[in-house]
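A reminder from the course coordinator: this example appears on the midterm review sheet, so study it carefully.

Given structure:
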């Protein structure tokens, strides 16, 4: 029996769907083959040896005795520091050091000569200071004592004084002599002196290194500054020759 080629159909192969119009795709149009992935490249990539996991060295604690020693040493240092600070504060509050009191008792000027042409000043100065230690429990020591006389804020003469010590509650009188020879003076100060009608304003200043102590306790060294400002000196003959401080003693400013 003969069959027409149009009525001939083949059974579809397993694993391939039927094509359009029920026609199965030929071998040239079949789906490509993809092999299964290698399991070792994916699942075991992060753990190359799953049977024997990696071994980590356990952390070893430092020597406990050494830690204990360091802690005790730190506590000792902190305790010593706190104790020294507490003792210093208590001693300071008990003794309460007070600044000495300075007053200018006299100031005389001789051979005062002011040259307007060269703006120079020549003169001799003689001054006396009264220093009082108001502390009832502390002694005050003075070192590197420097005194000067200034005109309009500019020093024209200076001298060093001998170091001295003041027992508690005592008063000391100190004197200083100094001279100025051809010292330059600002033109503003020259005009002020000439317009003073026989009166010149001078400043007396003292700088010293001081220290307070009571028995075994001593303070550190401090720079003491003394300022006696606008001291009026009246001359007998205009603004030349000899003159002296007007009024009584002048209280001075004292600071550290």
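Designed residues:
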């Amino acid at each position: 029996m003969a069959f027409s080629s149009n009525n001939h159909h083949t059974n579809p192969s397993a694993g391939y769907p039927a094509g359009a119009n029920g026609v199965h795709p030929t071998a040239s149009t079949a789906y490509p083959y993809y092999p299964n992935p290698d399991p070792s490249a994916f699942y075991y990539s992060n753990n190359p040896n799953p049977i024997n996991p990696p071994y980590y060295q356990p952390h070893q604690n430092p020597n406990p005795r050494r830690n204990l020693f360091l802690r005790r040493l730190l506590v000792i240092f902190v305790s010593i520091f706190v104790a020294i600070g507490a003792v210093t504060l208590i001693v300071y509050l008990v003794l309460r050091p007070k600044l000495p009191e300075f007053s200018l008792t006299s100031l005389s000027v001789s051979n005062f000569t002011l040259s307007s042409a060269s703006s120079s000043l020549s003169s001799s100065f003689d001054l006396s200071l009264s220093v009082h230690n108001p502390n009832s429990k502390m002694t005050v020591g003075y070192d590197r004592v420097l005194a000067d006389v200034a005109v309009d804020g500019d020093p024209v003469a200076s001298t060093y004084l001998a170091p001295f010590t003041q027992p508690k509650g005592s008063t000391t009188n100190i004197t200083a002599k100094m001279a100025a020879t051809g010292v330059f003076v600002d033109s503003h100060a020259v005009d002020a002196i000439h317009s003073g009608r026989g009166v010149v304003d001078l400043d007396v200043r003292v700088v010293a290194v001081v220290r307070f102590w009571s028995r075994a306790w001593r303070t550190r060294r401090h720079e003491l500054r003394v300022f006696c400002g606008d001291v009026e000196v009246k001359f007998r003959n205009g603004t030349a020759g000899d003159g002296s401080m007007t009024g009584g003693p002048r209280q001075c400013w004292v600071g550290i």
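The chain has two domains: 62-95, 101-255. Residues 1-9 have pLDDT under 50 and may be disordered.
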